[in-house]
Amino acid sequence: MKNCLSLVVLSMLCAGTVCAQPYPAKPIRIVVTSFGSGPDLMARLIGRRLTEAWGQQVIVDARVGATGRIAAEHVARSAADGYTLMMVTSQFAIGSALYEKLTFDPIKDFSPVAMLASTPFVLVVHPSVPAKSVKELIALAKARPGQLQGGTSGAGSPSGLSLQRLKSLSGVSITDIPFKTIAQAFTDTAAGQIHFTFTVVPAVLPSVRAGRLRGLAVTSLKRTPLAPELPTIAETIPGYEVIGWYGLVAPARTPAEIITKLNTEIGVAMRSAEVLERLETLGAELSPPANAQAFGAYLAAQIEQSRQLIKESGAVPD
């Protein structure tokens, strides 16, 4: 009789949390918004390291469309159990600021997990432009209001916001020439069809070092080890910063202990030799270690900055 009673009590306890399997007890999904992109590659890198550490498969789940809103809505409505994560980037912050009617709240519907890496952009000009520094470019723009042409991938893109912040903080008038992709803006800058553009470090350094383009500065607050010879725009325009970044979020109300475990193990994964080598090829830098709360504050600030720049630029959704 005592044995039967003990079994009943044990079964009742195991129905709760006492006998629950430690996290993770099943495969984890990382949702991304596109195939083969930087975020997709980053998710696969982290996934491999987590699988090695925890012995559970990590699946990368691409939910493509609506500039990331489909993926975000899916994750926001997923169970808050740590088994569904989403790779977010600076485009998530821009989209959250650009679209007025969203089916999710970019802050309230997600639990921040970890900041992973950041990507500075490089301001490059065609060699025919008589400016060898940001200071000289600003002076040239003031002498020729509206005549300088900066190529971007649209007013609501990272390159578009980089140009808008340059104009806002320096008070210059520059014409934004939008392209479908930043690669097209880069090509036209190299051909001398437009005066300058902003692009990622790996794409531009070969042309800069070959003299086909002139690198003026990077958009991060601090100089980047990816191109240490280049100054920052902030050295001329204090406070200037527009960067790309990668981070992970989970559905809101995911248990704090799961968030902490993810944050800690992801921090270990990001410092592995494999990930660090891959970051360099992506033109990204490892972010300093930070807890989930710090990433949440950063995400909120990025959305607010994007909202301000979008309002100044007059950008509207396509």
Structural write-up:
- With 318 residues, the protein is of the alpha/beta class.
- The chain has two domains: 27-118 and 244-313, D-Maltodextrin-Binding Protein, domain 2, CATH 3.40.190.150; 121-235, Periplasmic binding protein-like II (D-Maltodextrin-Binding Protein, domain 2, 3-Layer(aba) Sandwich).
- It is built from eleven helices and eleven strands.
- The strands form two sheets. A six-stranded mixed beta sheet has the order 2-1-3-10-4-11, with helices on both faces.
Defining key terms:
single chain; 318 residues; alpha/beta; D-Maltodextrin-Binding Protein, domain 2; 6-stranded mixed β-sheet; 11 strands; 42% helix
Give the gist of this structure:
This protein is an alpha/beta fold and 318 residues long.
Largest sheet: 6 strands, mixed
Structural class: alpha/beta
Q: What's the CATH architecture name of the largest domain?
A: 3-Layer(aba) Sandwich
Q: So what's the overall shape?
A: globular
> Kindly, what is the distance between the CA atoms of the first and last residues, rounded to a whole number of angstroms?
71 Å
The CATH class of the largest domain turns out to be Alpha Beta
Report the oligomer: single chain
Helix content: 40-55%
